[in-house]
Automatic annotation (TrEMBL):
The chain crosses the membrane at residues 556-578. It comes from Rhododendron griersonianum. It holds the Pfam family PK_Tyr_Ser-Thr. SUPFAM superfamilies: Protein kinase-like (PK-like). This is Protein kinase domain-containing protein. Keywords: Membrane, Transmembrane, Transmembrane helix.
Length: 626
């Protein structure tokens, strides 16, 4: 595939023709207009040599030739060649890059993008050349470790750059030390910008790349097949940032020496976390630990990370005690709420907000709500979002003073964590998902199976759905014959009943089947679409047989245990009956024998028939003594 370019300078739009085989058969692809055209004529780019290879293509050092009537210049640039893209998706990729290019103009914490081109038949991103990266600097140091001062300094600069991109709704998704480029003043900026963002949602010919977005060692769990285990979000970058900081401290890449499949098993299936080095400032250690929460809703956002790093800039460790750090009240999961401080700090209450008691995680319904519904009428301290608020509750005269961690904001009848259903179904999405956020104007963000990122719309497009929680038993609905995910069957061919083991942020249910015995490396975790299943309980099972079948679903050992118990009971009953029958026969025999009242030692009455059995006695006539 080659490209022939025609650029419209007045509007900033451009189009190019794709040559596929026969040069006479041309197809024109038009990119969206923009004030500054990002298109670079491939004839002005001369590749010199390849300087790197990553999961999203090759990186080349190149020379860009710029000429006008007044001057002629040559600049060293870096060309990132993207992987092969299907012809039908090229326009989408170009439109997304134009949007990225426009949003990145004037940002200080990211590398300078020059534009986009098609070189050697591949879509290529052209960017400014930087002399080195944080990864290169680590490679030149003994042990590969950076000093605490440099880590905090780089961390602050990088967090600010990531926040700039997040404010433009851009996800990085490929944070790692080799992509942290160094400026002439030893400052850190984000490099390799935009590749995963541009490829997000684009079908790729490489199936291995299609299931993940990023470099495996630094990828969050939801980045592995995000349409199933996602969605990806701003907090996905928090995981990559945490991995990068850990590597700067230790000099060792997370999951070093592991294959892609091994990393997948460790991070996604086993849900293990990178090891945090000891001796970190408390605020930094706490925020990095938060970066590795499996559920991204429990992770800190970049503003939290930036605050932790800035508060530790003057930290000094003396005699095992950190000085020069600012303190912050932490809310630990073990405090009783079940939520991390990062989760609780993402929504600040305001006067006039409608609130209700926050239900514990993994609980379908809250039976006894302290505050079923109330209005915030006062804040104890405006500067402390984790403090107390005054809530007016209907039926109670005076406002109640309540800690904000025990409350959740309700807007248009919805609160984050609610199960919702789309009123108009999308064929690419499961109709049932989990609400992640709702603004006061009704704009919502929802996680649905099938969506790589959060679905955004209006609360009027949603309705409440049946909620699920960990521990519930599930079965496929009767009208589901071909489920979205694999679902096991019983020996008789009937769909098996499983138990919810985990709920992913998009509502995808991780289900185990304790009623099915597995061996060795057999898969014991299955996924389920919440729209295709229904809850099962003893109360919903009609009849004794159904209730017994549900009892078998609790564990595969129920049936053999009941069989063994039945056999043991049968044996006990048999032995008991046998003994009873034996005793009965002995008693009957004893009753049939008539004892002799008088026996003479000399045998004079030996002919008397009284001692004989009845039948024998009739055979001998009675005799009298003379």
């Amino acid at each position: 595939m080659a490209g022939k370019i025609v650029t419209n300078r007045s509007t900033g739009s451009f189009d190019f023709e794709l040559v596929e085989g026969d040069p006479d058969q041309l197809r024109t692809v038009v990119a969206s207009p923009n004030q500054i055209s990002p298109w670079i004529d491939p004839a002005t780019i001369k590749l010199r040599h390849r300087i790197g290879r990553g999961p999203f293509g090759d990186v080349w050092l190149a020379t860009q030739h710029q000429a006008t009537e007044d001057y002629e210049e040559y600049h060293e640039v870096v060309v990132k060649m993207m992987p092969p893209i299907k012809e039908d998706n090229i326009k989408v990729v170009l439109d997304k890059f134009i949007d990225l290019f426009s949003k990145c103009q004037g940002l200080k914490g990211v590398c300078s993008l020059h534009g986009i081109s098609i070189i050697s038949g591949k879509v290529s991103i052209v960017m400014k050349f930087y002399e080195g990266s944080v990864g290169d600097k680590m490679g030149r140091l003994k042990g590969g470790k950076l000093s605490l001062h440099n880590i905090l300094r780089y961390g602050i600069e990088l967090a600010q750059g990531i926040m700039e991109l997040h404010s433009k709704d851009i996800l990085v998704l490929n944070l790692k030390p080799s992509n942290f480029l160094l400026t002439e003043n030893d400052g850190a900026v984000l490099g390799d910008l935009g590749i995963p963002y541009v490829l997000l949602g684009i079908p790729l010919p490489n199936s291995d790349m299609a299931r993940r977005l990023g470099t495996p060692n630094y990828m969050a769990p939801e980045q592995w097949k995000p349409e199933v285990r996602g969605p990806i979000s701003f907090e996905s970058d928090s995981w990559g940032f945490g991995c990068s900081i850990v590597e700067m401290f230790t000099g060792i890449q997370p999951w070093c020496g592991k294959s892609v499949d091994e990393i997948y098993n460790i991070v996604v299936k086993k849900q293990e976390k990178p090891q945090i080095p000891s001796g970190l400032p408390p605020a930094v250690e706490n925020v990095i630990l938060g970066c590795f929460e499996f559920d991204f809703r429990s992770r800190p956002v970049m503003a939290d990370i930036l605050h932790a790093f800035k508060s530790s800039q003057d930290a000094v460790l003396r005699d095992g005690v950190w000085t020069g750090v600012t303190s912050r009240t932490l809310v630990d999961k073990s405090s009783g709420s079940g939520y991390t401080e990062w989760f609780l700090s993402k929504d600040h209450l305001q006067v006039g907000d409608t609130v209700r008691s926050r239900k514990p995680p993994n609980l379908c319904k809250l039976e006894n709500m302290g505050i079923p519904e109330g209005i915030v009428v006062g804040l104890d301290c405006d500067s402390d979002p984790t403090g107390f608020v005054l809530v007016r509750v209907h039926g109670i005269h005076d406002p109640i003073r309540v800690h904000v961690s025990t409350l959740e904001r309700v807007t248009f009848g919805l609160a984050p964590g609610d199960w919702v259903r789309l009123k108009e179904e999308d064929k690419n999405l499961s109709p049932v998902g989990i609400l992640h956020s709702i603004r006061r104007d009704g704009i919502v963000a929802v996680g649905f199976i099938g969506g790589e990122t959060l679905w955004k719309g209006n609360s009027s497009e949603l309705q409440m759905a049946e909620s699920y929680c960990v521990g519930q038993f599930l079965r496929l609905k009767p009208n589901v014959f071909s489920p979205r995910f694999e679902w096991p069957r019983k020996h008789g061919g009937e769909w098996a009943t499983g138990r919810i083991h985990q709920i992913l942020p998009n509502g995808c249910l991780v289900v185990k089947f304790p009623g099915i015995l597995t061996f060795g490396n057999e898969n014991d975790n299955f996924l389920a679409d919440p729209a295709e299943v229904e809850a099962v309980s003893f109360n919903s099972c009609a009849g004794v047989i159904k209730k017994y079948q549900h009892l078998e679903d609790f564990h595969w050992a129920v049936r053999p245990l009941l069989i063994a118990l039945g056999l043991f009971t049968a044996m006990k009953v048999g032995l008991f009956v046998g003994k009873k029958m034996g005793r009965s026969k002995v008693k009957k025999r004893n009753h049939a024998v008539i004892p002799c009242d008088v026996q003479h030692a000399d045998g004079q009455n030996g002919g008397n028939a009284a001692w004989l059995p009845p039948k024998m006695a009739n055979m001998f006539p009675k005799t009298t003594s003379r």
